[in-house]
Amino acid sequence: MTRGTGSGALSLRVFRRASGAQLLFKCRWLRVALARSQCAPNPQLLTEPVQPRNPDYQTEINRVFGKAPFIADIGMALVDVTPGHCRTRLDLQERHLQQDGFVHAGVLTTVADHTAGTAGASLVAAGQFVLSTDIKISLMRAAAGIRLHCRARVLKSGRRLIFAESEVFSEDERQEHTLVAKAMVTLAVVSGSPR
Questions:
Q1: What domains are there in the chain, each with its CATH number?
Q2: Average pLDDT, the chain
């Protein structure tokens, strides 16, 4: 199929491979458009404000951090929370390290999980809470330094499941931050009062 003439002409040829499963497009602008639509994030999706279902979501956030004994025990602190987003930090101590002097993977996982859970908790309705049902963490490099920083954001918030991602950074003495772990967390939205 050909439309128009000159350099702006539309020339599209579709060929089937022998298997018939894949189409090849011999049109430069179409290949570019397809590549952009599949690879480039839509900037509107990243900047749209998220509306919490509970206008008093800060009460749930205070409960999530104030009533979690393990989180208090490791010393994790809430830095900032907005609907669908959360930032936390952990000042590293010797008790957070494993046998070779690096931050223990359990600590990194806890920080990533709880930060993502807090981001998810900021979006649930009153009378609901979240529980992690699945976490996949990639430990990208050995973590060391004086502090961990974590930021999490909700990718999709549904009525029953919330999908979030967390990134954990280590901070060294020069205040340089290095990405050390990334997690994908699935949260179940549970109705009723927690135990």
A1: 2-40 (no CATH), 57-191 (3.10.129.10)
A2: 82
Structure confidence by residue, pLDDT tens digits, 150-160 = 999 999 999 99
The pLDDT value recorded for residue 149 is 98
List, for residues 11-57, the tens digit of each pLDDT value: 444 444 444 444 444 444 444 444 444 444 443 333 456 778 888 89
Q: Cβ(54)–Cβ(124) under 8 Å? A: yes
Hunting for tokens 């280590």 — which residue is that? 170
State the Cα–Cα distance between residues 4 and 148, nearest whole angstrom. 58
H or E, element range at 184: strand 177-191
What pLDDT sits at residue 1? 45
Give Cα separations from 8 to 29, 32, 76, 165, 186 (angstroms): 10, 14, 58, 42, 46
Buried b (16+ CB within 10 A) or exposed e, 31-69: eeeeeeeeeeeeeeeeeeeeebebeebeebbeebbeeee
Those residues with Cβ within 8 angstroms of residue 123's Cβ, 6 or more apart along the chain or in another chain: 50, 52, 53, 57, 83, 84, 154, 157, 162
